[in-house]
Prior knowledge:
Layout: H1 2-29, H2 34-46, E1 50-51, H3 52-59, H4 63-76, E2 79-83, E3 91-95, H5 97-105, H6 110-119, H7 123-148
Antiparallel strand pairs: 1-3, 2-3
Helix pairs in contact: 1-2, 3-4
Amino acid sequence: MDNVLREQGMVLNQIYKKIGKLHHDCALHSGLSDTAFWILNELYTFKEPVTQSFFSETCGCVKQTVNSAVNVLVNKGYVYLEALPGARNGKVMKLTEEGEAFCRDKLIRVHEVEMRAYRRLSKEERELYFSLEKKWFSLFEEEIKKELK
């Protein structure tokens, strides 16, 4: 049983690495670093301005890496920072018109591609897949938290 579980874990790990490689290829194709790619993808796909801190926390990126990527995007004219009302240092990232055009014309929109792939699964397959991913993640998170104590 342990050998089967170990092999399944290896296969799952390889799949996650391949997904990461596909995302990296999308960033390269767009002429961006991975972090810059994800920032633009987030801003363009969800149309919600976010702070660098929020992006860093939700995407698991180091704050300095996010800051460097934002500086590149600002220098390219794709993003600007806007102060949050009432916040001492808080700023949100927003797309410029040039950034919108770049995203529309050049950015490979992973979200749209992922949705097309999901649509190729039956409704039942999608429900099972998402249910199992959600359950596995909760169990994994629970186990990680035990280990980090």
